[in-house]
Specification:
Keywords: ATP-binding, Kinase, Nucleotide-binding, Serine/threonine-protein kinase, Transferase
Number of domains: 2
CATH superfamily of the largest domain: Transferase(Phosphotransferase) domain 1
Number of strands: 14
Domain Protein kinase: 53-346
Order of helices and strands: HEHEEEHEEHEEEEEEHEHHHHHE
CATH topology of the largest domain: Transferase(Phosphotransferase), domain 1
Helix content: 25-40%
Structural class: alpha+beta
GO molecular function: ATP binding; protein serine/threonine kinase activity
CATH class of the largest domain: Mainly Alpha
Region (Disordered): 307-346
Family: Belongs to the protein kinase superfamily.
Largest sheet: 6 strands, mixed
Number of helices: 10
Strand order of the largest sheet: 1-5-6-4-3-2
Strand content: 15-25%
Radius of gyration: 21 Å
Length: 346
């Protein structure tokens, strides 16, 4: 089973301290819940919310475990992530996720509703994001494709979330696993960053980087971080750059069916566009500027010909991108959420 978590300065509790059984656990849970980690759910509540983990309610699978759609607290929709107890990464990610989300609040970060740790189960309960992952709207699914404006707005939302991570805390926080499957869309297609299990606090003021073992996802991983094992917020910037190309091209970051020089999207992009790496704030500024230009173009187009709608104006390049993706099915569609596609996950 899992070992108990001792976060935020909470004292370790063994069988001889704080009573036996539930009394000792209550003391431990209190140290976690009091930090703003959300509600502590009982396993009975989780079972009721997921109909005893009904497989028909599974909405995602990753290295951490399965994600179920459920309802908590009298009908509130939620995404319920159940850790696989046989995964070595589960414990560390469970602790990190609670630690990070207990101190982070932002419109473009997925909110943690609560957690459950009972009978060897480790479960996280999040706000439900009705439109799933950004990736699922780019290629590899039957969902309707996003317009160019929607893609831009989704990327801007994710950039705002990452910019907050990098600047909103004393040392900043580095996400370390930025990819299109970790950018979720709510019912209004507002984008939010998710999955903070690999996140790390940024370097202390007198340091330029954090020395740490390499973790991340193939295709998105910063080569400088991989080579030097020195983590900075610029590693997130690199990964987000890959996300931008993925959104523009509507193709997987690794596609072995393409010509050799195009298999890796990031390497292909860097061959013709290589510049010094900006900050997340600079990336956000440029994206918002592009959105303003796009909206101005649409307004000018509509005033010139009212019979030509915005959706028609975008349908050409949008459909073309989607068609390219359909012409090149790829293995990444099947393995992106699998733990084998994450470096250092086990």
């Amino acid at each position: 089973g899992w070992r108990p978590i001792f976060l935020y300065g909470g004292a370790a509790v063994n069988s001889s301290v704080g009573g036996k059984g539930s009394a000792g656990n209550q003391k431990l849970y209190g140290s976690v819940a009091s930090t703003g980690a959300g509600k502590r759910f009982t396993l009975a509540e989780i079972n009721a919310a997921t109909n005893n983990f009904d497989e028909s309610l599974v909405i995602g699978v990753g290295g951490f475990g399965k994600v179920y759609k459920g309802e908590v607290d009298d009908g509130v929709p939620a995404a319920i992530k159940r850790a696989n107890p046989h995964s070595e990464q589960g414990l560390a990610e469970f602790e990190t996720e609670i630690e990070m989300l207990s101190k982070l609040r932002h419109r473009h970060l997925v909110s943690l509703i609560g957690f459950c740790e009972e009978k060897s189960e480790m479960i996280l309960v999040y706000e439900y994001m009705a439109n799933g992952t950004l990736r699922s709207h780019l290629f590899g699914s039957d969902l309707p494709p996003l317009t160019w404006k929607q893609r831009l707005e989704a990327c801007i939302g994710a950039a705002r979330g990452l910019h907050y991570l990098h600047t909103g805390a004393d040392r900043g926080i580095i996400h370390r696993d930025v990819k299109t499957t970790n950018i979720l869309l709510d019912e209004n297609f507002v984008a939010k960053m998710a999955d903070f299990g690999l996140s790390k606090d940024g370097p202390a003021f007198e340091h330029t980087h954090v020395s740490t073992a390499v973790k991340g996802s193939f295709g998105y991983l910063d080569p400088e971080y991989f080579r030097r094992q020195q983590l900075t917020e610029k590693s997130d910037v690199y990964s987000f750059g890959v996300v931008l190309f993925e959104a523009v091209c509507a193709r997987a970051v690794i596609n072995p069916t393409l010509p050799k020089d195009q298999i890796n999207l990031a390497e292909w992009a860097m061959r013709w566009q290589r510049e010094s790496r900006p900050t997340m704030g600079e990336v956000l500024w440029h994206l918002e500027y592009v959105l303003q230009l796009h909206e101005a173009w649409l307004n000018k187009d509509n005033s010139a010909d009212n019979s030509f709608s915005s959706s028609q104006a975008l349908s050409g390049p949008q459909d073309g991108s989607v068609e390219v993706a359909k012409e090149h099915p790829n293995q990444d569609d099947e393995v992106d959420l699998d733990s084998k596609n994450t470096i250092g996950s086990v």
